[in-house]
From TrEMBL:
<keyword id="KW-0472">Membrane</keyword>
<dbReference type="InterPro" id="IPR053141">
    <property type="entry name" value="Mycobact_SerProt_Inhib_Rv3364c"/>
</dbReference>
<feature type="transmembrane region" description="Helical">
    <location>
        <begin position="75"/>
        <end position="98"/>
    </location>
</feature>
<keyword id="KW-1133">Transmembrane helix</keyword>
<dbReference type="Pfam" id="PF03259">
    <property type="entry name" value="Robl_LC7"/>
</dbReference>
<feature type="domain" description="Roadblock/LAMTOR2">
    <location>
        <begin position="9"/>
        <end position="100"/>
    </location>
</feature>
<dbReference type="InterPro" id="IPR004942">
    <property type="entry name" value="Roadblock/LAMTOR2_dom"/>
</dbReference>
<keyword id="KW-0812">Transmembrane</keyword>
<protein>
    <submittedName>
        <fullName>Roadblock/LC7 domain-containing protein</fullName>
    </submittedName>
</protein>
Length: 135
């Protein structure tokens, strides 16, 4: 498990360093637990992961309003003063979140996120939990 996490951290670093103005990259489970991170301290990554769980839930609720939708969230982008936030589905029960400064190349960050998910999607899935334990 520790080796897998080290490999994931390295890949997150690669994503962040390949796109100028990327601040933070976090992989999280659907229930908001941080699985891997790059570019921020643990507390910040944990807060972002928890917030993403709520955002993902809202996105699913919105998706259900589209006729013919399967109700799954694929990508959420939020622009705020100072930067952009991206949340992308990244495997069964896992998500990839990125914070970037204003001026980031939005197309490049989206493409690099998709590439990362495609490359390591099977490592980004999170097994369901029961009674707080990983199943």
């Amino acid at each position: 498990m520790m080796q897998q996490r080290a490999n994931m951290d390295w890949m997150l670093k690669d994503l962040a360093e390949s796109v100028p103005q990327t601040r933070q990259v976090v992989v999280l489970s659907a229930d908001g637990l941080r699985m891997a991170q790059y570019g921020a301290d643990t507390d910040s990554a944990d807060r972002l992961a928890a917030a993403c769980a709520g955002l993902q839930s809202l996105a699913v609720a919105v998706a259900s309003e589209f006729p013919g939708s399967d109700g799954r969230m694929r990508l959420v982008v939020i622009e705020v003063t100072g930067g952009l936030f991206y949340l992308m589905a990244a495997g069964a029960g896992a998500y990839l979140a990125v914070l970037a400064d204003d001026g980031v190349d939005a197309g490049l960050i989206g493409a690099r996120m998709r590439d990362l998910v495609a490359r390591i999607g099977e490592h980004l899935s999170s097994p369901p939990r029961s009674d707080g334990q990983v199943a």
